[in-house]
Design goal:
It contains ten helices and 16 strands. It has 309 residues and is α+β, with helices and mostly antiparallel strands. Helix content is 38%, strand content 23%. A hairpin with a 2-residue loop joins β8 and β9 (202-203). It has helices at 9-21, 24-31, 35-49, 65-91, 105-111, 116-122, 174-180, 229-237, 247-256, 289-302; strands at 54-56, 61-63, 97-103, 126-132, 146-151, 158-165, 168-172, 196-199, 202-203, 206-209, 216-218, 225-226, 243-246, 260-262, 267-269, 276-282. α1 (9-21) crosses α3, α1 packs across α4 (65-91) and α2 crosses α3. It has three domains: 9-91, Arc Repressor Mutant, subunit A, CATH 1.10.10; 97-166 and 275-302, D-Maltodextrin-Binding Protein, domain 2; 168-269, 3-Layer(aba) Sandwich (D-Maltodextrin-Binding Protein, domain 2), CATH 3.40.190. The longest helix has 27 residues, at 65-91.
């Protein structure tokens, strides 16, 4: 009967190493052992499992079908043990080092920068480099540890953690609505000044729908088009027209009453697909502890639902 009780972690590590190197000699050199000792450990492993694991010849070794199966499971076991060891080491040490963060300009100003002093107090050994841009960033080429992205999440080679959902409102100032009237349906917007964001992909389209119904899109124009969301927000507050922006951007203005939600019975967006605010990091086995504590901190501070809703 096969017995796993006689198998130890070191023998599994040596077995996997032999498969990766293709011979006993190189493994013996790296482990400061004799080739005969490595060969004996593998033979004891075969004896314990009562099956042949390797085909041996004078130049190299190769796995049998049983060897391939054991190697697959052994790699998983060893990977989990390595993670456990890493967690134990990290638990006993304070996170530190440089964390390079890239975030959209306005979101970074409003919802990341204000939380950095407390983050510094909590983790004084962390050094934060916050770069803010609305341009496309490749974290691998631009040496970014943590990328904050907002919008429709596409397939990516990056790992992602959702920080919040992007919810939109159609809004205008009380002054504008008193002057121009309150639209009753999205069709009425053609008679209004619509302040539209224009980015690298062109002018935004505005989508509306009643709950559980299909999205419909409108191409609208007004007195101002801009590639800066803050500029358009201030123009709307000043009475220049209507805007469609996320609650993280205009939530304060809505609560203060300088902007008023319009067509609240409709759902509104700039895309028919769900949009999120996400923290992305390179597709490693797991994020480093310094990156994880920053993500956990942002999740804690943003809340669920997010505090700006």
């Amino acid at each position: 009967m096969k017995s796993f009780n006689q198998i130890n972690i070191q023998s599994l590590r040596l077995f996997v190493a032999v498969l990766e190197q293709g011979n006993f000699s190189e493994v013996a050199r790296r482990e400061a052992m004799s080739p005969s000792t490595v060969s004996r450990v593998i033979a004891q492993l075969e004896q314990a499992l009562q099956t042949q694991l390797l085909y041996r010849n004078t130049r190299a070794v190769s796995p049998t079908e049983s060897g391939k199966l054991l190697a697959e499971h052994a790699r998983q076991v060893l990977a989990q043990l390595d993670l456990a060891e890493q967690d134990l080491q990290e638990q006993s040490s304070e996170p530190g080092g440089l964390v390079r963060i890239n975030a959209p300009v306005v979101f970074g100003q409003r919802h990341i920068a204000p939380w950095l002093p407390e983050l510094n107090t909590r983790f004084p050994r962390l050094n934060i480099e916050l770069m803010q841009t609305d341009d496309f960033i490749d974290p691998l080429q631009d040496s970014v540890d943590l990328l904050i992205r907002i919008g429709v999440m596409a397939d990516s080679t990056l790992q992602a953690r959702t920080l919040g959902h992007q919810n939109f409102r159609l809004a205008a100032s009380p002054t504008y609505l008193a002057r121009a009237g309150i639209p009753a349906t999205p069709d009425d917007l053609s008679n209004h000044s619509c302040l539209v964001f224009k980015g690298f992909a062109g002018s935004q389209r505005w989508y509306f729908r009643h709950p559980e119904k299909e999205w419909r899109s409108w191409n609208l124009r007004g007195a101002l088009t801009s590639n800066n969301a803050e500029t358009l927000t201030q123009a709307a507050i000043g009475g220049m027209g209507l805007v469609v922006f996320p609650t993280w951007l205009i939530g304060d203005a809505l609560r203060a009453g300088t902007l008023v939600s319009v067509l609240p019975e409709y759902q509104v967006s700039t895309s028919p697909e769900p949009q999120t605010i996400s923290a992305l990091y390179p597709n490693a086995r797991r994020a480093s502890v310094k990156v994880r504590v920053v993500i956990d901190y942002l999740v804690e501070k943003f809340g669920l639902p997010a505090y700006w809703e």
